[in-house]
Each structure stands twice: as C-alpha cells, then as structure tokens.
C-alpha cells in the first residue's frame, strides 16, 4: 500500500500569514492592467519626466490592490476555517490494540480506524468488518456524487469477523492497489493475507466524504489519505470563466495603449522640432534641466512624460467600477422575490459575480432532463395487466387504500378503482403483476416503527413502483442476502433469492430468480418493452398486441413505461444454468461479457404480464419557458442519460417538439460509417430536391472554408453569417441522437458535420449520454461557434457540462447539491431561467455596455485636451488642469453618476422584457458594445475634447475682464476648461440614462455640486496658507467664474458638444428605431396590457415510450453476494422557433395598404405572412396601428 508517510491533512487554502502579501501581489500583477499602472507609477517617480505627482496614480492603484487583497484574504480565511474544521475532526484510531481519539490530520495510511453511525468517513478505507451481518454497511454519498440514496458496501468474508479490536490489532495483511486517481466508481487492488490473495473492488471501499448510515459501527484500513483520496482528486480547480466583454476589453486596452504610444511619439517629435527650431532662443535664460543636453534626449523624456499624462484614457477606476456594478447585479438576482421558491424556501443565488452581462448574450442552452425539466418525483400513473382485464378510466377522487391495507402509503394517489377491485377479487394475473413489482428491484426497506415503512431506492422510478405494489397489498417488508420478505394481502411470505440478473445500459432490463414458499422456481423480469417483447414466448403475442396499444396511449402522455414478464424454471434448468452463471461470475477475463451471455440464455420464452406507466411530471412553467426562450432566438439542447423514447416524449411534453415539427431525425448508428450515413440522410431534406446528394458535401465543405476565413459583414447587418448552407435553411426540424452514436459523431473527422446538422435543427435531444459526453457537446459548440453557452442541471452527472459551459446553472432539486456547488448561478425551478436571462441578463448586458461606452467617452474627452494643448505649450508636457482635478475627475466628479447608470439603468420595464423576447437579440448579436461602438465613443470623446479646448482657447485669448485685464492666462483657461468638461459630461450622462431613480439624481447633480465645492475649497486662501507649495491656484476659481464671458463660453461649448448628439438621436429614433424604442412608444399609447391567449397543443399519432433505469448497474450483485440494498402550456409552440433579425434594419414602414399591418416583423414574434386567425388585433397592436382585416399580416 502507499507510503505510510502520507498523512490525512488537507489544505484548500492558497496563502498563510507569511506568503499572503508576496503571493497575492504576484497574482495581482499578473493582470496586465495592474502591471501597466505600476509601470506608470515608476515613471511618475522620475522627476525629469513627470509633470504629475506620484499620488495621482498610487492612490487608486493601492485602493484597487487593497480591495482585491481584502477579498482574497477573506475568501482564504474561510478556506482555512473550513480546512481546520475538517482536519480537527475526531476519529478513533487503533493504536497498540487500543482505540484512541486522533485528529483527522494525524491519521496515516495503514491505520485502522473505527466509524460509528452518522459519522463522516475520514479517508479512503478498505472495509474490514461491520456490526451488521455479513460485513455490510450502508453509506450516503451526497458529497461525492450528489446522490442522496443509500448505498451498500461489504467487507471481504475473511475479514468480516475481525470485529474485535484485539483481532484487528493482529491484522498484518498487505494491500497492493492502483495509484491515486479520481474515478469514484472504480477501485482495483489485491489483499495478501495468510498466504492467500483476495481481489478488492469499489464495493469494498468507503471513500472520504461518505457518511455511515443505519450501521452501528465498522472498521476500515486507510488506503489513501489527504490529497490522495478520491474526493480530493476530484476537487480540481474550477476553470476561470471570463465574459466576452472582458476579452474584448483586453483587446481594446492594447489598442488604446498603442494609440497612447502613437500620441506620445507625435508629441515627442513635436518637442524635438520645437526645441531645435525655437527652444534654442530661450537657452540663455531658460536652459535645459540636467541631464538634458540636446533636443533628442529632450524628446525622449517628453515621450515618457506624455505617456504619464495621457494614461487616463484607461483609468484604473474603470476596473473598480466594473466589479462594483457586477456585484450589485448579483445582489439584484439574490434579492429577486419572483425567483424565490416558496415550496422549498430556496432563493436564487448568484454564486459568481463576473458573468452577469454574459447572461444577456446566451445563444445555446444545454439542459439535463430528469430533475431539471421534470420534477424527478415519480408517480405510478397507470398499468395494464394480461388479458386486458383492467379498465383504465380515472376518477375525480383518489382511492383510499388505508381502509383495507394498514401498510398503505398515505401519500400515494391513484384513481382507477377497477384495478383495486381486481386485486380484491383475487385475479391471478393481477396478483402476479404486483408480485413482480414487490420482488424485482433493489430497494432497501427500513421499518422505523411497527407498520411505518421507509423505502430507500436507487432511483425514484423504483421507489414509485414498489410503493404502488405496497398500496395494492403486495408489501415489500425486508430482505437479506438470500431472502425477500413480503406481505401479500396481509399474509407474510418469504421468498428465497437465488440470483439477481443485474441491469445495465445494454441489457435495459433486470431479473430476479426466486424460489416460492411452494418450492417453484420462477424468474421475474422487468425492462424496456422493445427489449422484453423480443424475448417473449410465442403464446404471449396476443397479450403483447394488447399491451402495445396501451403503451402507445401512455406514450401520448409522455409517460415512462416498463414491461413485466415471468418464466417458470425446472430444477434441472436452474441447476444447469446456475453452474454456468457461477463460472462466469468467477471468471477473471471478460467477466462482464460472460455474465451477459448467461443472462441472455435464461431470459428467454418469457410470459408477458403487462406494463406500468410512471409519470415524471414536468416542472411548473417548463413549456412556457422553452417557448419564450425560443422566441428570443435561444436554442435549447437536451442532454440526458434517459433512453430515447422517454427523452422524445418529454420533448413533446415541454413543446420542444410539436405537431409543426416537419420531421424528427433519429441518429442511432453503432459504427462510424452508419452514423455518417445517418447524418447525411438528415442533411438531405434540408436542401432543394434538385440538388444532388454529392453537391451537399461540396456546399458543406465550402461553408466550412468560409467559416475559417475572416469575418464578413454584408447583408447580415453586422451579425455573423450562417456558418453553413444548412443554417440558412428554414424549417421545423429536430434531431435525436443516442449516446453510442454521439461517441462517433464527436470524433475529429465528423464533429463539424454533426455540429452543422444539429445547429440547423430547431430542437436537439441527445439521449443515453455520459457526463463526459455532455461536456464534450458543450465544448464542441464553444469551440466552433462564436456564441455564449449555458448549461443547466441538477445532478452530479451534470457537473462536467456546468463547468465547461460559459455559464453554469445548478438546480437545487432531488439529486443533492453537487451541481449547485459547481454552478455560477442556482435556483430551484427551470422556469426561473427565463427571468434570469430575459430580465437580469438583458439588463446587466445593457447596463454594462452603456457604462463602458460612456466611460471611454468621458475619459477621451478629458485626456485628449492635453494632446491639443501640447501644440500650444512647446510640447513641454504641461497639463491643462491642476493635478488635484486630474486625481479627482475619475474618483469623485464622474464616478458616481456612471456607476448609478451601470447599476440601475433599464430601457424597458421587466414586464416588457418578458412580453417581447426579441428584445434579447441585441445581446446575442453583440450590438451594444463592440469595436464599432467603441470607435464611435472615442470619436465622440475626441470631438468633445476639440470643442472643450479650442472654444475656450479662442474666446479667452481675446477676452478681458470688466476692468480691462486680459483673461488669457493659464489658470483661467484651466478652470474654464475643467468646468465646461464636468458640465458637458454630466449633461451627456443625463441623456444616456434611460431610467431615473432618486439615486441617479443625487449622484449626477451631487457630483456637479461636489465639483464646485471642492474647486472653491482648493483655490481658497485657507489651504494656500497651510500648504503654499501644493495649492498654486489661489483665488483662480473665484475670479474666473465671476466673469460672464466665462459662463457664456461654457454654455457655448456645452451646446456645440451636445447638439449633434441630440440631432443624431432624434433622427435615428425617427428613421431607424430599435425594437426597445418601439416598445417604449407602445407602452406610452397602450393603456391595456396585452395578455396571451391560453391554449393547449396536442399532437397526432403516438410514439413508443420506454422505462429508463435511473440507477447504475451492480446492485444486483451486491444483494446476491450478501450486499443488501437499503436503501397548461402557452400556445407558443407553433411559432417558437421563428425569429427574425430584420427589426434591426427598419421597424416602421409607411402605410401603403389600409389592410396591411405596418410593423414587420411583429413584435410578438409572429413571422411575416402569418394568418390573421393567429394574429388577432389585440395581439398585434403596435403603437396605434392595428391589423384588422388583412388576409395575411406581412
């Protein structure tokens, strides 16, 4: 076994007291921005090149570093606290034959420790013995895999009797095992003891993080400790996620830095020319400062001086403001009462504060099915027994089982009285039907008190079936490794358990072989109908036809179905098969294949008993949410471990698939070639029939080549063009692909073809996929599509795709909290996703984009004034403003108004965001902040700087005071320009703010007031008398602002800066309004809120559903070896996928025909050409225009 030097101490923290400061600073200065500002600070400490005091940079830099350091220290403190709490837990360790208490951190590999009921397992242990019979113990693994159901573990028979500490102290076995790894479900090792060797598997192991349940005590040998345990091996670092805006910002910062260098070079060249041509004239009385001795060196120093002065185009306060805005947006999500689940008292939680604006740009949603779209609460819905004796009608009132069955579960609801009557009258087929349900399972029963049974099932499906049998009088009471005890209609019956033929994904069935009290041997089997029907005896064909009809009825309701059958075995048949079974079970090579062959041999000539239907109910609002998200041009892919039939039926239930779906393509090949052929057959109907099949491949190849080229913006209005010819084809298509086919489709030579085909479909369902395949599908879309992805799930099997997607959302449901812990956002209902994206996500994106546009505008307007001033001051790197204004501009004068806009702004109310899903599309197309918008912002900022410099310069150069004294002095010019700047940017943010609150008013006008207050204070005689060398502008503001010509200059500059902006916005609003503009207009003129008509969409035909085993294989082997188990939708589907981006071009058109609706496309999501019958006046009211009589709305 591993070296005994490995202790059990874990450390998830990053720092300690000694390493915190250097390590944290090293991490922070890995950020390009922090390194850039540190570089500027060093330059400012050189007096020959700095015209600004060093504190103008060090104060904000230290502030940012301190805030980040405090945040990191706080997070690490809680990690230390958690680590200490875990490491200091007490454990009983066997030392010199005596049990002694030791801290977990002191446990070492090779120690034998004792665990008691409800204790956490301290390390990865080999189970040696237990207080339970046969060396059994029961554990809960919620911390490992999110599953809350109990699992069983069993010790080797040779060590199961070592329950006494004295015997355990003499244990001297040696364990040779695999190295530490992160595979939770596998362990391979060998125990050498008493000159014998024994194979070890995962069923002999207790992993760290598990909790001992329903077991008084057990002993275990430490195999892996501390960081070597499987829990710690799986706790790798979460991948750091950055938003697309963050990535764009990094690019823009580099561009700005390049622009800064260019400006510095221009001004440095100007300095060299000026010093050479003009400066020498001043050398006699204004010599160069040492060590400058020539004009070239003067230009070199001037370059660095201007780099310092002009660095405010990207102030460090930008990064502080962004983090504050994101934090506030996260709190808005946490405080949203409309995303609070009263049933579970669970609020929504933003577990990450860095991804909020990305919520407004999602194009692909990858969703789990069970527990995410459905409730993962199974209810026994219906059944059909042999000979179709059961009436399937349902009554309004649920049946009361307690009147004749004292062991009935009072929470069980069923409405078919005829089924209960068939049980009471003793119909043999019905009795045998429920006998199968009470015997063929891996459920564990716990009787807390007389008659109070608690079932611990590996899956909700099995729990529902066993509970149904219980209520109909066939009560599963208890089990041992060799017996199953039931109570049949009040009579206790014990069956001898001979064998369990375990379930796996290939077999899709499980069986038990039992000996009845009468001595008969019978095999009971349950499984998918498509599998069992192939193994039926010929005399069951009539029953099969009847059952198939009912299965089709169940399929129409999206139920999970299961077929039941049995077979009688003779003693000779059992003895011969049992011998072959034992040989296969003990085989070293190809054990699984040999067992499968043995199972296949005995599971033949079955007699069909009937079928059951389990309802996994959809969560509230799932269908409506999917329909609305589809209208927002969000594609939803379902990735589930369930079988194909079940997944497809849930697709119909939640309206991903509808009657309008042109065709549902099934890809179910088992080889590379068959999968490729299936995908190409899917492609064929998309293309015009005249195009031959070989031409399809050429077009797809051409599309791929076009994707690899540079981005083209033509008729797509700035959006990315379709990535293939397939995506340009409109149609209601759906793709269903199985896990074994997906494995081939994800290979390098086929993944592009699969992706193009899938993206051309409106709905994609991947069934029977593994957790790794879920992550691979998400990664495929991330890698080849310039789109934001979101993964949502509720179980441990969803963790990989949640971590892989740009945004991970965890549902706090029935499968533990593993998905929540790995997620960026969490809540309890899928329906909250539409509010998270369409309200919080859209607002966050809108606010962040407006914040960034304004921030760059105001800083370019502020900084470029220095550039123009350089041409009039001999390129001497003299600043226009005094240094205190430069320091306070981004910290006090302009920080709070833009912060308020970034936190509170909104274009339309939240109700309109949900009513008009098309409002979400600008985020997907990245229209509000991109490179084009960035250049527009800096162009406006440069224009403003030109006005703010040359208007005051031109006016004041000729102006005089009332006493004739000229106003053309540096300090008057500085005060005038600074005041005009503050007023202009304040007016500009007033125009940019779309939603005013009291906080906005206070910050905007308060910042203007703060400017004048600080200005007069800085220029007062009081501060000058105290710090004469620091405050040089004595009385400048009082003298300057007392002149009427100064205020006229400020007013003129303000009008010239703002008037073009107002004119442009009015023209744009009138000629090319955005959808949000139109919605705001409709809000003003519509007094009555539009309400959607409710309806229910059915579907013709039927599809076969199948029961999906939700638990893993292996539980049958545990039992037979002595290892007991304990254990109304909206009518939106018809147009959900139809969308158009043409509203970005022109939303209002002139009225040419009184019978034609002017608005195209319809804001509600109706496409052009939709019939008036589905486009009624009250649903197509656009402002004051209504379509009443048009035969078709265009």
UniProtKB/TrEMBL annotation:
GO terms for biological process: Golgi organization; phospholipid translocation. It catalyses: ATP + H2O + phospholipidSide 1 = ADP + phosphate + phospholipidSide 2. It is found in: Endomembrane system; Membrane. It holds the Pfam family Cation_ATPase. ATP binds at residues 368-370, 462, 503, 526, 560, 640-642, 768, 774, 797-798. Its EC number is 7.6.2.1. The active site is at 368 (4-aspartylphosphate intermediate). Residues 7-58 form the P-type ATPase N-terminal domain. It is an enzyme of class 7 (translocase). Gene3D superfamilies: Calcium-transporting ATPase, cytoplasmic domain N, Calcium-transporting ATPase, cytoplasmic transduction domain A, HAD superfamily/HAD-like. The chain crosses the membrane at residues 36-65, 252-274, 294-320, 851-872, 884-904, 934-953, 973-991, 1003-1026, 1046-1067. Residues 820-1073 form the P-type ATPase C-terminal domain. Its main location: membrane. GO terms for molecular function: ATP binding; ATP hydrolysis activity; magnesium ion binding; phosphatidylcholine flippase activity. NCBIfam families: ATPase-Plipid, ATPase_P-type. This is Phospholipid-transporting ATPase. It comes from Pygocentrus nattereri (Red-bellied piranha).
């Amino acid at each position: 076994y591993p070296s005994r030097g490995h202790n059990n101490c874990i450390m998830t923290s990053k720092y300690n007291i000694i390493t915190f400061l250097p390590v944290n600073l090293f991490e922070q200065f890995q950020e390009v921005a922090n390194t850039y500002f540190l570089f500027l600070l060093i330059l400012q400490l050189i007096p020959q090149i700095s015209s600004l005091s060093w504190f103008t940079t060090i104060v904000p830099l230290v502030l940012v570093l301190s805030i980040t350091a405090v945040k990191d220290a706080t997070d690490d403190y809680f990690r230390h606290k958690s680590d200490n709490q875990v490491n200091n837990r007490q454990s009983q360790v066997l030392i010199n034959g005596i049990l002694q208490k030791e801290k977990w951190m002191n446990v070492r590999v090779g120690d034998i420790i004792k665990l008691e009921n409800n204790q956490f397992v301290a390390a990865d242990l080999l189970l040696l013995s237990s207080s339970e019979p046969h060396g059994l113990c029961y554990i809960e693994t919620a911390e490992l895999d999110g599953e809350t159901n109990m699992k069983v573990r069993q010790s080797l028979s040779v060590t199961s009797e070592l329950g006494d500490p004295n015997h355990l102290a003499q244990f001297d076995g040696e364990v040779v095992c695999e190295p530490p790894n992160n595979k939770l479900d596998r362990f391979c090792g060998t125990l050498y003891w008493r000159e014998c060797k024994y194979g070890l598997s995962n069923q002999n192991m207790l992993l760290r993080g598990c909790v001992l349940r329903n077991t008084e005590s057990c002993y275990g040998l430490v195999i892996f400790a501390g960081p070597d345990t499987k829990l710690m091996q799986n706790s790798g670092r979460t991948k750091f996620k950055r938003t697309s805006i963050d990535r764009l910002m990094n690019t823009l910062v580099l561009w700005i830095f390049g622009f800064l260098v260019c400006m510095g070079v221009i001004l440095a060249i100007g300095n060299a020319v000026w010093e050479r041509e003009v400066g020498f004239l001043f050398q006699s009385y204004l010599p160069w400062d040492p060590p400058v001795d020539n004009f070239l060196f003067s230009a070199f120093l001037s370059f660095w001086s201007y780099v310092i002065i002009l660095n405010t185009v990207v102030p460090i306060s930008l990064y502080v403001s962004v983090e504050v805005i994101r934090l506030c947006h996260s709190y808005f999500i946490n405080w949203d009462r409309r995303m609070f689940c009263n049933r579970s008292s669970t609020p929504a939680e933003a577990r990450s504060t860095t991804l909020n604006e990305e919520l407004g740009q999602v194009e692909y949603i990858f969703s789990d099915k069970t527990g995410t779209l459905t409730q993962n609460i199974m209810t026994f819905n219906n059944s059909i027994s042999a000979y179709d004796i059961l009436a399937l009608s349902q009554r309004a009132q649920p049946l009361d089982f307690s009147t004749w069955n004292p062991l009935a579960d009072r929470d069980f609801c069923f409405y078919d009285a005829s089924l209960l009557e068939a049980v009471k009258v003793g119909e043999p087929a019905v009795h045998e039907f429920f006998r199968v349900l009470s015997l063929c399972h891996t459920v564990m029963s716990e009787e807390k008190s007389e008659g109070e049974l608690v079932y611990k099932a590996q899956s909700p499906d099995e729990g529902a079936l066993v509970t149904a049998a219980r209520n109909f009088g066939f009560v599963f009471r208890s089990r041992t490794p060799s017996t199953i005890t039931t109570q049949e209609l009040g009579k206790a019956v014990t069956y001898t358990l001979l064998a369990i033929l375990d379930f796996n994904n290939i077999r899709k069935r499980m069986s038990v072989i039992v000996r009845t009290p009468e001595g008969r041997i019978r095999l009971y089997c349950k499984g998918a109908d498509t599998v069992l029907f192939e193994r039926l005896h010929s005399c069951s064909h009539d029953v099969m036809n009847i059952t198939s009809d009912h299965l089709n009825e169940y399929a129409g309701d999206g139920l999970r179905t299961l077929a039941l059958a049995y077979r009688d075995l003779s003693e000779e048949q059992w003895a011969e098969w049992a011998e072959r079974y034992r040989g296969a079970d003990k085989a070293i090579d190809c054990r699984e294949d040999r067992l499968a062959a043995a199972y296949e041999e005995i599971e033949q000539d079955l007699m069909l008993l009937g079928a059951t239907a389990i309802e996994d109910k959809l969560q509230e609002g799932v269908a409506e949410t999917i329909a609305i998200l589809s209208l927002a041009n969000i594609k939803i892919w379902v990735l589930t471990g369930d079988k194909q039939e079940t997944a497809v039926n849930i697709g119909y239930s939640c309206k991903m698939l509808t009657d309008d779906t042109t065709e549902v393509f099934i890809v179910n090949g088992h080889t590379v070639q068959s999968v490729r052929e299936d995908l190409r057959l899917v492609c064929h109907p998309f293309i015009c029939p005249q195009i031959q099949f070989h031409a399809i491949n050429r077009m797809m190849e051409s599309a791929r080549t076009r994707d690899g080229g540079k981005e083209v913006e033509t008729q797509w209005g700035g959006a990315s063009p379709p990535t293939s010819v397939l995506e340009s084809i409109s149609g209601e298509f759906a793709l269903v692909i199985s896990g074994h086919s997906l494995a081939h489709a994800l290979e390098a030579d086929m993944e592009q073809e699969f992706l193009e085909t899938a993206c051309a479909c409106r709905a994609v369902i991947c069934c029977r996929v593994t957790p790794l395949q879920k992550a691979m599908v998400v990664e495929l879309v991330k890698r080849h599509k310039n789109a934001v992805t979101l993964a949502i799930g509720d179980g441990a099997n969803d963790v990989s795709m949640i971590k892989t997607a740009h945004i991970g959302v965890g549902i706090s449901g029935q499968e533990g909290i593993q998905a929540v812990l790995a997620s960026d956002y969490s809540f309890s209902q899928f329906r909250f996703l539409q509010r998270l994206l369409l309200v919080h996500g859209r607002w966050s994106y809108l606010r962040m984009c407006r914040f960034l546009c304004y921030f760059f505008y105001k800083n370019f307007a502020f900084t470029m004034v220095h550039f123009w001033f350089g041409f009039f001051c001999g390129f001497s790197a003299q600043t226009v403003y005094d240094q205190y204004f430069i320091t306070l501009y981004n910290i006090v004068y302009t920080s709070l108004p833009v912060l308020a806009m970034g936190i509170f702004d909104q274009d339309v109310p939240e109700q309109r965001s949900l009513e008009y899903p098309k409002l979400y599309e600008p985020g997907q197309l990245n229209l509000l902040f991109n490179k084009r918008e960035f250049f527009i912002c800096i162009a406006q900022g440069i224009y403003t700087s030109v006005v703010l410099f040359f208007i005051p310069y031109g006016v004041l150069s000729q102006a005089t005071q009332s006493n004739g004294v000229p106003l053309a002095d540096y300090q008057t010019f500085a005060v005038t320009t600074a005041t005009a700047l503050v007023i202009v940017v304040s007016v500009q943010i007033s125009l940019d703010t779309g939603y005013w609150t009291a906080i906005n008013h206070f910050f905007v006008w308060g910042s203007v007031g703060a400017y004048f207050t600080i200005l007069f204070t800085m220029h007062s005689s009081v501060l000058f008398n105290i710090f004469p060398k620091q405050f040089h502008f004595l009385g400048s503001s009082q003298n300057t602002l007392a002149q009427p010509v100064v205020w006229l200059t400020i007013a003129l500059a303000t009008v010239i800066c703002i008037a073009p902006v107002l004119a442009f916005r009015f023209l744009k609003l009138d000629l090319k309004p955005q959808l949000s503009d139109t919605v705001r207009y409709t809000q003003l003129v519509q007094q009555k809120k539009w309400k959607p008509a409710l309806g229910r969409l059915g579907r013709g035909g039927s599809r076969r559903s199948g029961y999906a085993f939700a638990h893993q294989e292996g539980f049958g082997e545990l039992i037979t070896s002595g290892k007991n188990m304990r254990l109304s939708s909206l009518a939106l589907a018809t147009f959900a996928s139809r969308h158009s981006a043409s509203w970005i071009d022109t939303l209002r058109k002139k009225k040419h025909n009184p019978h034609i609706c002017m608005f195209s496309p319809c804001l509600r999501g109706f496409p052009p050409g939709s019939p008036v019958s589905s486009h009624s006046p009250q649903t197509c009211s656009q402002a004051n225009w209504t379509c009443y009589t048009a035969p078709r709305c265009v």
